[in-house]
Amino acid sequence: MNQFISLTFEGIANGAIYAALGLSLVIIYQATRVVNFAQPALALMAVYLAYTVTQATGSYWLGFATAMASGTLLGVVTERLLVRPVQDKSPLNAIILTLGLLMVLQGLAGMIWGNLQHSFPPPMSFRDLAAVPISPEEIFALAAVGVVATVLFLLYRFTPLGLRMRAAAFHAESARLSGVRVGLMLTLGWGIASAIGALAGMLAVPPLLSPTVLDAVFVYGIAAAVLGGLDNPFGALAGGLVLGVGLSYVSGYVGSELTTLAALAILIAVLSLRPAGLFSRATVRKV
Amino acid sequence: MSDTPILQIENLSTYYGAVQALRSVSLTVQPGEICAVLGANGSGKTTLLRTISGLQPAAPGSRILVNGEDITGAPAESMVRRGLAHVPEGGGVIVDLTVEENLRLGGLWRADRRDRAQALDEVYELFPPLVERRNQPAASLSGGERQMVAIGRALMARPAVLLLDEPSLGLAPLITQQIMRLLHDLRDRTGLTVVLVEQNAASALSITDHGFVLSQGAVVARGSSAELLADDRMRHAYLGF
């Protein structure tokens, strides 16, 4: 029973990270119809910068702030300089471009910080309390993603800026005719998404940082987004949690070597039953 | 100053690739007028509106003036600030948003919050069926209600000129008639200028003051609505009734 509870908590905490990555993909997909394969590399750069700042100052939280700021900036720059010029072409162009960026940035990270693992411990010292089945890192991950998701929901649903961003994502022409600067909204969306990706990176990395550390997590993030339906933010959150808990059980009860396989199995099962994802809206988008 | 046209178009041409869609179109609309842009399918009516509002680039040498101000080449998102609201073909209602979100979007660019709320009340007054549907997704609306949202959203911007692209498209004749009457009343009450693109020439000319007939991207006739209606040759050749 105790194992069940601790596996559940661990799954939820991991799931929150997948959910955050999934969310960052969904925000960009909704706005620009591009699956941003560079997301883990953008997050990776942000985490490396955070690592550098934390090393220099000794403060985890300064590093955390650095990750958020640089994550946002990287997303903005990527959209403006790389994605914008191919926006009107086939969506495949932008996807290939993000794939290329992924490789370039991972290589760059290796060149700057080396391919060896660096120790980048979590902010809380690990207290192994047998009575409490949830660790401080898990609480932190869950709280951070919870806060971000809530703030994002409030922003999108209840503020004029959020309305503009949704309008720009759903129907660019109508948004423009209503005076919305669509390009600015898309850039902003990339910035926000990329900041969330950086957050996921900060939560996923500890304790060891290396250029490929986020690859596996990113696969789960994509799986979460696809599970939930690529155009549904709530779906990505739910998909992430479902996946996290499911994989945690598989790893705990069956064997940790099977988690990747299990992720794939869940993905195939869901997609064959509901091709558009678990929570995708049934309406067909008319443009 | 009083005779400055609210909308003046000089020598307007535009191309889709190598195909010329508008050929040196010139027309003038006075404040408070309702004018019809008529013509068959593919005659350039929609292109004309899209070029005026900056969605389609105008060829060099074209000039578009709103209230004397040259807006040629200005981006589409700046048009509401210049007093121009465009209801595109099909309405452009965003089905993923609620009715009220669609409407509020139209007024967002204006700084005056209180007047935005006032404008929303006025739109609901104009289109009572929208009130009880305000929190429903626009996807659930009927065609007529959608057109109300489309026009309502444009009016939220408090425009001087309303560009309206085929509001009758896909609507029952009775609903089309209601919309035409409403535009007419609105003009009489607020002095709104309306440029109405219609395929349904008879219903358009019933409320407009004057009209332009486009054929293959060029203006082939212009005159008061009564004159256009009286011209048999014109009716047979271009208006189809």
Automatic annotation (TrEMBL), chain A:
Pfam families: BPD_transp_2. It is a multi-pass membrane protein. Coiled coil: none annotated. CDD domains: TM_PBP1_LivH_like. InterPro entries: ABC_transp_permease, BCAA_transport_permease. The keyword Cell membrane applies. The chain crosses the membrane at residues 12-29, 36-54, 60-82, 94-116, 139-158, 179-202, 208-227, 234-254, 260-279. One of its GO terms (cellular component) is plasma membrane. GO terms for biological process: amino acid transport. It comes from the Bacteria. Keywords: Amino-acid transport, Cell membrane, Membrane, Transmembrane, Transmembrane helix, Transport. It is found in: Cell membrane. Its main location: membrane. GO terms for molecular function: transmembrane transporter activity. Belongs to the binding-protein-dependent transport system permease family. LivHM subfamily. This is ABC transporter permease.
